[in-house]
Amino acid sequence: MKKLILLTALMLLSILACDTLKRSSQSVRTSVDIEVPRLAILISVDQMQREYLDRFGDQFNAGFRRLLDEGAVFNNANYQHAITGTAPGHATLSTGCHPVRHGIMGNNYFTPGGADFKMAYAVTDTSTTLVGLEDADQKIYGSSPFNLDVPALGDWLKSVHSDAKVYSVAFKDRSATLMGGKNADRAFWFNQPTTRMVSSTYYKSDFPEWTKYYIGKEMMKSSLERGWSKLLPEEEYSASREDDFPYELGVQKTTFPHTLFSFLPPVSTFSYEARKGPLLWNSPLGDAYTLEFAKAIIENEKLGMDEIPDMLFVGCSVADKIGHQYGPYSQEVQDYYLRLDQYLGNFFAYLDERIGQENYYVALSADHGVMPIPEELVRRGIDAQRITSLEYGTMIDSIEARLQRELGLQNDFVKIANYQGFTLDYAEAKGIGMTEKDLRKKLADAVDTLPFVADVYLPEELLLTTNTKSDISFFRNNYRPDRGVEMKIRFEEYVLVGGGSNGTSHGSVYSYDTNVPIIFMGPQVKSQAFDQSAGVVDIAPTLARILNVSVPGVIDGKPLDYIFNEKMEAEATKAGER
User: What is the DSSP letter of 80?
Assistant: First the structure.
């Protein structure tokens, strides 16, 4: 009888699970009978915190102003995975999935390889070569979305409309390739020495001839020669700290103006012409060029010119370079966003004229945020701390040496130790009768005594489906035994671990890293601010709703149907009922 009751219970649970999955699948259906746009555009501003919209909002008068006035603006939108970075962020933007599902765990991550581990860059594809550099084409490995485990938004679109065009462009290869997805017509990224946009042989069509007319140092020649000075008078930068702050870190002198002559060694030894590539990479001019190249894609590949919907992804990568060096409270960051406001205004005006305001939608977000420079936080009365890579490594080495003595081990057993966590060598410990779990626990307990460490998560905790510790779900959403470290570490809030003694970075589970803008703008989108909680995983399925394409398989996000006007809301309701 007990066995019969158990079997019946299991059958009921199975039926309920299937029903739940069925309802979940219906909830992300996108076969909504709406007027499909000719073009959808997703813009990712690398490292943009949502709070910039508040802090600089009164000074926006062009692109950001239009997004804020005409768009659906989310005040509480977040990433829900740990180790926030460029590669996992852009993969999440395009797939609607957390890293555990899409497989891009970080910009770089360790993977098992025989008896050892090897470092993998998220988008290196040794089966491809670079194209767009003529003489160097066959000598340099290319990049691709080869490691992306699930289809992306552009792939969803092409599965419905085989003639749809999908393009992506960013300065960073990991941004361009991972946003574009597995079947994009082409992704472009920046080559600094030539200041050209390049690509790889992963993409099957011929590399377009028209790109040779869009060389950055030629298109931006006069602006590069003028350099980067403040857009506004000094008194307009009260939202930021003083320009000269000792904990900034630049490849140039850290005060305005930033010119072809203000680079520090080794760039200062470059020729005048060779400095133009680094200045594009380290000033707002780089993203001005990216948006001009995006226009060129639309023009030359004829995106949005017929009734078949097309998709364009644009990554503003330079924002990340500036943020890492100068920090979010710098005048450089403020000036960057004031200039990006102008660039976006120009881009939207172009779309109005070329595509028609009624024919396109724009979504804007970011791949992650950033922690303020710790020394700036201390000055503001916040308990913050910087632990350099050297300091952190010394602490871990000391803990390892102590455990070796206590356990009677002769050899090092920590194979990988970085800001993400640890991977261990168990061979010697097993030889003295210690289990893998016991060795991990010994290290975790020792590391947990460091005052700046909040928690260390073991594989057995990360593989559970129930929460046992605060914030562990963020780490579960970025944990796979085959990719990345096996033990994850969470530092205390406002502690920056890694790097040197200047600048700043990201990668935590705290709001300064996870809270990013999400804005949708288009003919059927409400002009309204929303306080509802939303995830970045919701962007792709919402754009799928707009494009009227189905989401294949299981994803983590859901369409944000409540942002649409009454006509679209009614159609979305019908789709849910079907």
Answer: -
CB-CB neighbours of 436 under 10 Å? 14
120: β partners: 109
Q: What single letter denotes the amino acid at residue 316?
A: C
State whether residue 486 is helix, strand or coil.
coil
Among residues 273, 62, 322, 310, the alpha carbon closest in space to that of 171 is found at 322
Q: Give residue 302's identity as a one-letter amino acid code.
A: K
The DSSP letter of residue 138 is T
Class of domain 39-107+148-370+513-577: alpha beta
- Tell me the three state secondary structure of residue 60: coil
* Count of other CB atoms within 10 angstroms of residue 430: 12
Nearest to 476 by CA among 101, 213, 211: 101
Sign of CA dihedral 42, 48, 53, 56: negative
CB 555 within 8 A of CB 537: yes
Split at pLDDT 50, 70, 90, the class of 502 is very high
Tell me the per-residue pLDDT of 447-500, one tens digit each, with 9 for 90 and over. Answer: 999 999 999 999 999 998 666 666 899 999 999 989 999 999 999 999 999 999
CATH class given for the domain over 385-502: alpha beta
In this predicted model, what pLDDT tens digit does every residue of 127-157 receive, in sequence order?
999 999 876 556 789 999 999 999 999 999 9
Closest Cα to residue 102, out of 144, 147, 155?
A: 147
* Cα end-to-end span (Å), the chain: 40
Indicate the burial class of 523 (C-beta count within 10 angstroms; 0-12, 13-18, 19 or more): middle
Is residue 384 scored above 60 in pLDDT? yes
pLDDT tens-place string over residues 264-274: 999 999 999 99
Q: How far apart are CA 155 and CA 183, in angstroms?
A: 6
Supply 394's token pair.
């010394």
Confidence of residue 120 (pLDDT cuts 50, 70, 90): confident
Average pLDDT over residues 526-537: 97
Q: What phi and psi values does residue 415 have, to the nearest 5 degrees?
A: -80, -40
Give me the residue spans of the domains in the chain: 39-107+148-370+513-577, 385-502
**b/e per residue 265-276 (b: at least 16 CB within 10 A):** eebeeeeeeebb
pTM value is 0.92
Per the listing, tokens 């092409």 go with 158
